[in-house]
Records
---
Amino acid sequence: MVEQHLPMPPVKDSSLCFRRGNRLLASADFQPLFNQPDIRVGGATLLFLVRNTENPNPRLGLVVGKRRVRSAVHRNRIKRLCRESFRQRQAELANLDILILVKAPIPRVDRVTLGAELSRLWDKLLAKRNQA
């Protein structure tokens, strides 16, 4: 009898979880970001609106409109990829509220293309934050 070795599940670092405290939930949380963002960072299809806060935990809000991305499957995939990207970089984003908006239709909703744009925008955001 041959013993099969299954791959070990990835170790989950609890500091990198995306919990309720890391989300912008209420309309009152979104409004200051729309009205007076401290930092604006834009790419071809995404726009980051950012405000500095007293809260040590970074918080993320997502706006993926039906007019920009027609398919619910693609809207959900965009949200998942944005949340995952935020989760991986949240240690660098302390004291920030971040709103990610889809500002233009996204032609290809795949992990590589969207991941590359998100990575570029996170880098631009951190550079702008360090300048201020």
---
Amino acid sequence: MSDAAEWHVGEVIDEIRGKEIHCRDGLVGQVSDVLVDPVSGRPLYLVWREAVVVTREVSIPIDYVERIEGQQIVLRVGREAVERLPHFWTAEAGSATRPCHEEGY
């Protein structure tokens, strides 16, 4: 399962959840969910959820995936590119409530 363009929902969602996401300069976190195209059934984004006091959710485009090695998903971009992606703050894990409108986003 190395080419993200060939992933299909039934084959990957349960297998991908929980895998570590690594970028060129280190660990990002773990996949908490996979967002799919409802028509084609192809995955579009990996969701990275980071909980502190509130939860930040970031949808990482599948195009960022370079390869999968065991329990690791390796991205072709650095952490700075992931940090620049739009993100959502939630009070409870599992439901995106409002997009972040911080400067630079």
---
Amino acid sequence: MSSKNPGSGTSKRGFASMDEERQREIASEGGRAAHASGHAHQFTSEEARRAGQKGGEAVSSNREHMAAIGRKGGEASHGRRGGEGVQARSGREGQKNEEGD
């Protein structure tokens, strides 16, 4: 007898076939059990700092990726100013002129 869904080619068995909520419940139970038995690794602040540093070095070594991040940030930053920039500048200049007169 086959345990596969007709036409889908996937098994009805196993962790991956469960709905996401049930997977979370099982994973959570496993995490709690590991911590309770003392088998779960807990990072010290130094270990966490070093891991973050290694990840940052790995990402920043990819110049193309970093350039894309910078472009995206610039577009977001300048995009906010672009729509109101002319009006905001003229408003500030108008205030200066009024104060200076």
